[in-house]
């Protein structure tokens, strides 16, 4: 069974997949991402690693909820969606899992005639990629929304200031008018 | 039809190169992708400030319309600054590229762009210095790490030096004590000589010069705003607080960032100040001419920084106050604590600050005569001079973001924490290497807190967002407190993107919630006008 192989070689596959992702950064950066293990000093490494481990495990599990899968994808994609990547560069990591699996398990797959199961797995990875598009777009939309909200906040404050001035002005006018009404 | 019959093979369509470009750091070319840089400042503001080369241009334009003799201007500017500032000369010469700073910048950590490593960012300027100002560079050029000054280098400087928030986290780790923010400051001064600046850093400075605050709010509107908050406080507490404006001979002049009376959530913090001052009977005054704590001159040039800072002291002198109390502001404290004394000081026409309530002498403000509100309030609380009901903040689970400048430029670490712990029952720290002197920046300081570079802000904001997310998951933190007006604006989208659900707050907003005032009505509302102790996100039923 391919599933057993994937479970047995989990550590190797995840490590290689993670390395492939780190290689998408410039050399000096990938060196830094590989070495620092502190989750707060090196949050990109920590979060991406959490994400790929989660995605990998979710991929193998039957009946995994789509929300959980999206949460793990989000960990990786939320970061890459704001870094200096084109959309395809940001998401290529999903497809690179296929290459990693073929590389690590190629021999066993051939020897045990598991190609049919590999095709099925790759279909799942394709579905994962579609899901990744949604997550990516969601993150990008959030960025645009944050921009709009920031501008709206500024506008709202300015309008409030005008309104406030107007209210104070009206009140002052009423106060000024008041004595003449009394008399 | 087989694929061979087509000119394009299917695999050609799928040719993607995912390898990062192999770019030598000496190559200055930069792609100005929208979302990653700030827009230029409108010429009218440059004209107002009598700054060089006012014109219409944008960083994504091919032609930046530099003055004809731009190279000469930059070299002359460097020469002038190297002779004037020993620190600049030292910072250019002393770095041994040990790399201690390399992985400490929030922009590098979040973006992965090597030119955001502080050492490399500084090297962008240093390589030109080496090439044209050192003997070895003049002879060996590139071999000695020298680079020729070209228009591309100028564009690269613009891109990276307006991508540094001057937060100085990297400086904490430098064994030579290089103040990397000062390198950015020098680079920005040189860029300004060519008319290369950004709206968000320069327009507020021009406004401040003209009206006394970044937003260009005029005296009558300033007064109206404060009166509005006076009414709001009365609605919430039943107490009409006093509101002294331009009061000659008051003990204390109070100066705070304009964000506090213009933008939420700063406004809630401002109400907290007003209530506190009223309650302790402080003899103080506001001033429309010193209606700005922030100093965006710092982000442009030393001349502008000096002018804007001088206004506060001139107003203190005019009003005849004894000393100055400063509100929750970030970089104001860098200016006051590290530059004021040699720029505009000594302020010997003022008295050494002493709290009229507790008698505490603020020794550290002996020379500048300006005290931070967190220190003032912490002192009141330490001496039990105010009555507090921290349970009014019980629905809030609070963490504290040390703002870069108060923490690193003046060592204000314990005072805001003392205040928070006095007014809240649920306080949780973020991880140690993300707070205090090692605090991560909001990624919107130094004039970068604008919307057009939101993507860049989110990159740089990730280290802070990650630590925030951690305490949100671990302790259900729902409030992020800070003592800086820029933070109060820029941390909002940061939290929305990286730790959605966490609300940003000023420290004195929480003081306002907890403060028990003489003659107050039974408090039902918090500073935001929401029912007290309603959990965040609760809907009306």
Provide an overview of this structure.
The complex is a heterodimer of chains A (183) and B (541). Chain A has helices at 2-8, 10-22, 27-35, 43-60, 66-80, 87-111, 115-182. With 183 residues, chain A is an all-alpha fold. Chain A has one domain. In chain A, helix 2 (10-22) packs antiparallel against helix 6, helix 4 packs antiparallel against helix 5 (66-80) and helix 5 (66-80) crosses helix 7 (115-182). The mean pLDDT of chain A is 92. In chain B, helix 21 links the parallel strand 6 (479-482) and strand 7 (503-506). Helix content of chain B is 45%, strand content 4%. Chain B is built from 22 helices and seven strands. The interface between A and B is large, with 44 and 50 residues.
Would you spell out the secondary-structure blueprint of this structure?
The complex is a heterodimer of chains A (183) and B (541).
Chain A: H1 2-8, H2 10-22, H3 27-35, H4 43-60, H5 66-80, H6 87-111, H7 115-182
Chain B: H1 10-13, H2 43-48, H3 70-84, H4 86-94, H5 106-111, H6 118-133, H7 135-140, H8 151-161, H9 169-173, H10 180-193, H11 199-211, H12 219-237, E1 252-255, H13 259-262, H14 266-280, E2 284-285, H15 302-319, E3 323-326, H16 331-343, E4 370-372, H17 373-382, E5 398-400, H18 404-410, H19 414-423, H20 454-475, E6 479-482, H21 485-498, E7 503-506, H22 507-514
Parallel strand pairs in B: 1-2, 1-3, 3-4, 5-6, 6-7
Helix pairs in contact in B: 3-4, 3-10, 6-10, 8-10, 12-14, 14-22, 16-18, 17-19, 19-22, 20-21
Main sheet makeup of chain A: none
Total of DSSP H or I helical runs spanning 4+ residues of chain A: 7
Backbone structural class of chain A: mainly alpha
> Helix tally of chain B?
22
Can you summarize the main beta sheet of chain B?
Answer: 4 strands, parallel
Multimeric organization: heterodimer
Determine the strand fraction of chain A and express it as a percent band.
Answer: under 5%
The largest interface is: A-B, 44 and 50 residues
